[in-house]
Design brief:
single chain, alpha+beta, Outer membrane efflux proteins (OEP), 4-stranded antiparallel beta sheet, 11 helices, 64% helix
Length: 470
């Protein structure tokens, strides 16, 4: 058997061994296995949420449920122009490129080299010319799955980065919605503050008129003017807060913060009950949990890669070409060059570096598993808290509405009694202050319910887009 045939036979055997070795690569642990290995035995995922809810499947398109066209337009703008989201998208492209680079190691490397020169010599009637060209191929056989483990790790990291991007999109939309609702709240608060200024202005005029006819106490005018000045100061503060929140929203949209964005003058959104699904379903629905699970897979594969790095490596090489120079021209012969080879490298002593690399990769895998388990528990907490607040905030808003109605009636009666001299001005001011405070609390409660609903949608993992369109 010639040497070339022996080499080809060896290459075939090594390729077969590589294929068989690749089949033995272990798969990363599933999410259930990670949680079982990480969480204490006393921790069990519940079959249903603690609150009494609709356990049907979570539906996408939660943004449409608020029925606010201005908000929908802002979301489209923020997705197109927000710079932080653009940076996250670039990270996705970079991760995809790294995954492609890792996959390239499984394929042969092909290169072409060439050289040409002309040499002149004294006493010769012509110059000597020489040239050569070679095509070379090299391919490392992935016998132990080291390269494939690296590729799998890069693919898992790519999936994690893509999930991070999707969660960034959802979080950005949630932040936009919350900021929009907060801007609406402050806008309504501004209307209330302006109304308070107008009410106290009327009371000043009333007290001045009563003082002219001797029906007001000397301190009444000072008291009501002090309330008016306080209302004016509060109005300025609310205006400042409104401008700040509008500018923040404009920056999210990628606009110049000129505080020119038009804002709703009252709340439009309604909050019907929504399906919440089952606790275990959020493991496959929330992008941040998908990302954490993918990073567990990435660290698992990196651990396998580090272990395989301690084993021998085999690389096949082949090259072919031709060389031409003045001498071959004189002899009228050709000079083809062909070579085949196989390189073996087995690490014998590295000062403990390879062993330490395995220990490092194993530690990172344990850390990733713990991060995933903690992320799952935090996700459950977010949903349970949001569901509890759904019920409590709805009841709170109902009670605050009763408080407003009762204070409104008390203020109406007290003001009528003051006009006929049955009660003093202090009683009117006290009732007026209670009414304004109750109305302000009701406005804030409405915004808290809207913000909490957004948090619930984000916690459940349903997409803000219909049909989960990207």
């Amino acid at each position: 058997m010639t040497s070339k045939k022996r080499l080809l036979r060896t290459a075939f055997i090594l390729c077969l061994t590589s294929y068989m070795g690749a089949c033995t690569i272990k798969s990363p642990p599933s999410s259930k296995e990670v949680l079982a290995d990480t969480l204490p035995d006393s921790t069990h995922i519940q079959d249903n949420w603690g609150a009494s809810v609709n356990s049907e499947k979570v539906v996408d398109g939660w943004l449409d449920s608020f029925e606010d066209q201005m908000l929908e337009a802002l979301v489209a703008e923020v997705l197109a122009n927000n710079q932080n989201l653009q940076a996250a998208a670039a990270k996705v492209d970079a991760a995809a490129a790294l995954a492609t680079q890792a996959g390239a190691a499984l394929k042969p490397t092909i290169g072409l080299s060439g050289k040409g020169s002309t040499v002149g010599a004294s006493g010769l009637t012509s110059n000597l010319e020489s040239s050569n060209a070679f095509l070379s191929i090299s391919w490392e056989l992935d016998i132990w799955g080291r390269i494939r483990s690296g590729v799998a790790a890069a693919d898992a990291t790519n999936r994690a980065t893509q999930a991070d991007y999707e969660y960034a999109r959802q979080s950005l939309v949630a932040l936009t919605a919350k900021t929009w609702f907060l801007a609406t709240q402050i806008r309504v608060q501004q209307k209330l503050s302006q109304e308070a200024v107008e009410i106290f202005t009327e009371l000043v005029n009333l007290v001045e008129a009563r003082q002219r006819i001797g029906l007001a106490q000397p301190q009444d005018l000072s008291q009501i003017k002090a309330r008016l000045a306080n209302a004016e100061a509060n109005l300025r503060q609310v205006k400042s807060s409104f401008l700040d929140i509008v500018r923040s929203l404009e920056v999210l949209l990628g606009r110049y913060p000129s505080a020119e964005l038009e804002v709703n003058t009252d709340y439009l959104a309604q909050l019907p009950p929504i399906p919440t699904g089952m606790p275990a379903e959020i493991l496959e629905r929330r992008p941040d949990l998908i990302s954490a699970e993918s990073r567990v897979a990435a660290t698992f594969n990196l651990t396998q890669q580090a272990r395989a790095a301690r084993l021998p490596r085999v690389k096949l090489t082949a090259s072919g070409g031709a060389a031409d120079n003045g001498l071959t021209d004189i002899l009228n012969t050709s000079n083809p060059v062909v070579s085949l080879g196989a390189n073996l490298f087995a690490p014998l002593y590295t000062g403990g570096a390879l062993k330490a690399a395995v220990e490092e990769a194993d530690a990172k895998q344990r850390a990733a598993m713990s991060v995933y388990a903690q992320s799952v528990l935090s996700a459950f907490q977010e949903v349970e808290t949001a569901l509890s607040n759904e019920h409590l905030y709805r009841e709170r808003e109902t009670y605050l509405r009763d408080v407003v109605n009762n204070n409104q009636e008390a203020y109406r009666i007290t003001l009528a009694q003051h006009k006929v001299g049955r009660v003093d001005l202090l009683s009117v001011l006290q009732n007026q202050a209670s009414l304004l405070s109750a109305r302000s609390a009701l406005i804030a409660a409405k915004n808290e319910r809207l913000s909490q609903r957004v948090s619930l949608h984000l916690a459940l993992g349903g997409s803000f887009e219909l049909a989960n369109l990207k």
